Amino acid sequence: MLLTNNRLQKFTKHAILSIEMTEQTVPITIYSADWCAFCHAAKGYLDKLGVQYVDKNVETDPANGQEAVDKSGQTGIPVIDIDGMIVIGFDRPKIDAILREKKLMK
């Protein structure tokens, strides 16, 4: 199909709007603390991938800490909850496998 310049502009604009309007439907929560280097690494990695997440600080809100312990069965951070699948620490291969399974990365 041959697109004229005007039709190409409309097509490109529509494609960009479609990409921008796509919402991530897989809930991701990171339980972290400001001083935790592995927490910063995990959040930076997800940011680099463009994956949205909720950051729950365990240091500023003890309820977040208890929630992390309840989910993971231990007290270390980061704890990453990807749609109910728990990753303890910045375990990149495990994070990648879950994100692939959830279709958030190829």
Description of the structure:
With 106 residues, this protein is α+β, with helices and mostly antiparallel strands. It has a single domain, classed as Glutaredoxin. It is built from four helices and four strands, in the order αβαβαββα. Strands 2-1-3-4 form a four-stranded mixed sheet, sandwiched between helices. The longest helix is centred in the N-terminal third of the chain and has 17 residues, at 5-21. It is globular and about 35 Å long.
Concise summary:
The chain is of the alpha+beta class. It has one domain (24-101): Glutaredoxin (3-Layer(aba) Sandwich), CATH 3.40.30.10.
- Per CATH, what is the topology? Glutaredoxin
Terminal CA distance: 28 Å
CATH superfamily: Glutaredoxin
* Number of helical segments with 4 or more residues: 4
Helix content percent band: 40-55%
Rg of Cα set: 18 Å
| Largest sheet geometry | 4 strands, mixed
Query: In the CATH hierarchy, what is the architecture at level 2?
Result: 3-Layer(aba) Sandwich
CATH class: Alpha Beta
Which of globular, elongated, flat, extended, rod-shaped describes the shape? globular
Order of helices and strands: HEHEHEEH
Nearest-integer average pLDDT: 85
- How would you name the oligomeric state of the polypeptide chains in this document? single chain
Number of strands: 4
For the largest sheet, list the strands in their spatial order: 2-1-3-4
